[in-house]
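Quick start: read one record
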Amino acid sequence: MNTMSKAGAPVADGGTADIADWRPEDEKFWESTGKKIAYRNLWISIPALLCGFAVWGMWGIITVQMLNLGFPFSKDELFTLTAIAGISGATMRIPASFLIRMAGGRNTIFLTTAMLLAPAIGTGVALQHPEWPLWVFQLMALWSGVGGGNFASSMSNISPFFPKRLQGTALGLNAGLGNFGVTTMQIVIPLVMTVGLFGALGGESRPLIKDSGWILGKILAGTPTWIQNAGFAWVLSLVPLSILCWFGMSNLKTVSPDTGSPLTAFGKIIYLYSLAFVPSIAMLYLYLPAPTGLGLLNMWVAIPLDIIAALVVMKLAAFGTMKEGVTKQFAIFKNKHTWAMTALYVVTFGSFIGFSMALPLAITVIFGFIHAPDAAGVLQHTLKNPNAPSALTYAWIGPFVGAAVRPIGGWIADKVGGSIVTQVISAIMVFASAAVGYVMMQAYQSSTPEQYFQLFMGLFILLFAATGVGNGSTFRSVGFIFDKAQAGPVLGWTSAVAAYGAFIAPVLIGQQIKAGTPQYAFYGFAVFYAVCLILNWWFYLRANAYVKNP
C-alpha cells in the first residue's frame, strides 16, 4: 500500500518496486520510511554482488586446477585466462556504471545477476573437455567478465539510497561483503571439485596428476576431481538470488526517471553489455600473442585504447532517451576530481582484485618448484618442490582480510575523513609492495623456496588489509566530493578503471616471473603507490587543498 508525501507524490511501502519520492537527507523521512527500504536493497545487493565477484574471479582458481589436472596448456597460456576475465570485467564496468540511471536499480541488478548463469554453465561444460582448444576457455573467461561489470552498477545503485553521513559505511558494506565473493569462490571451488555434486548430470571426474589442496590442506595426486563444478556450483545460488532481486529490490525514480517498462530496461542493459564485448575482443585480439591474437600491442597501449573504444562505442551507439542519459553522465569527465579519485581507487580496489586474480597461480609457480642451476649454471624452474605449500590452501586468506576490513575502512573514514585514511594506507602499501618484491626475488632464486612462504603471505595479507581499508575511505570521499547526480556514475567509472588491475596484475606478474625477475612487478607497484600518495596530499590534504579531507 502507498502513502502520500507532503508534495503529494507516492512514497513506496515495503513491497513497491518503483519509488517516486526519495529524500534520505530528510531525517523524518529516513527514520519513518527510507531506512527500511534502503537496508532491504542493501542486504539483497550484497549476495548478488558476491556471486558476481565469484563468477568473475573463478579463473584464478580454475587455472591452478587445470595445471594440476594436466590440461594441455602452458603456464603462460593459463595466465591469459585470468587476464582475459580481468579485462572483460573491467570493460563491462564502463557501460555498467551508466545502467542504473537508464534502466533502474531493480531491473539492472536482477538481470545482471541472472546473466551470470550463462558463463557459469558454459564454463562447467567446457571444463569437461580438456581436449577442446584454448580459445574455448578464453571465450568462457571473457564471458565471465559480466560478473566483474556488476560491481559498477551495484555501487551506483546503493549510493543514492543512503544519506551522505552513512554512504561510507553502506558502500563499504556492499563492496566489502560483496568482495567476499573472491574469498567464497577460493574456498568453495576447491571443495565442490572433490564431490560429484550433481551426480550423473554433472559429468565424470578426472584424477589429479599433481597434488592440489583446499582450505584444510593438501589433496593428493590421484584424487578424483570434478573440475566442472567450479562453474556448475553457482547455479545453486544464482537462481534463488535472481528471484529475490526481482521481488525485493526497488527502482528509485528520482535517480532513474525514464527507465520505461521492465522489458525496455532489459533491452537497454543487454544492448550496452553486448556492445562492451566489442572493444574487449578487439583489444585482446591485438594484444594476445599467436595463435589467439596478433600480439601487436603492448599492455599499456591496449588498456587505454580499450577504455577509449568502450566510451566511443557507448557514445555512438546510444539512441533516444539513452543518448541523453549517456551525454549527461559523460559530464563527470570534465571534473578534475573524477581523475584524481580514479587514480586513488586504482591503488585500493585495483590492487585488491589484481592480487586476488594473480596470487593463486603466483604461489604455485614460485613456491611449487625448485629453483636451482643446471650444469651450465643457468637457473631452472621445472623440478617439482615436494615441500610446496598448496595455493588453494592459502590464497583465500588475503582477499578474505581485504574484504573483511573494507566496512571498517568506511566507518573510520566517516569519523576522521576519507583522505587521511587513504594517505596512511598508501604509505603502508609502498612499504609492503616493495617488501613482497624482495621476498619473491629471494624465493625464486632458492632451491627451498618454501622457507620464504610465511613472510611472503604475511606481507601479502598486510597489502590486502590496506587495500580493504582504503576502499572504504575512497567511497566516503566520492560521496562528499560529488553531488547526487555525479556520485553514482563516478563510483561506477572509478571502479571500471580500477578493475583493469585484474588484467594488469596477472599479466605483469606473469611476465616478470617468466623473465626471472618477479620482484620488478612489485617494485613498480610501490612506485605507483608513492605517486598516488603525493596526488592524494595535493588534492585533499595540503593547506590549500581543492576539497579538504573529504
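The CA atoms of residues 16 and 157 lie 17 Å apart.
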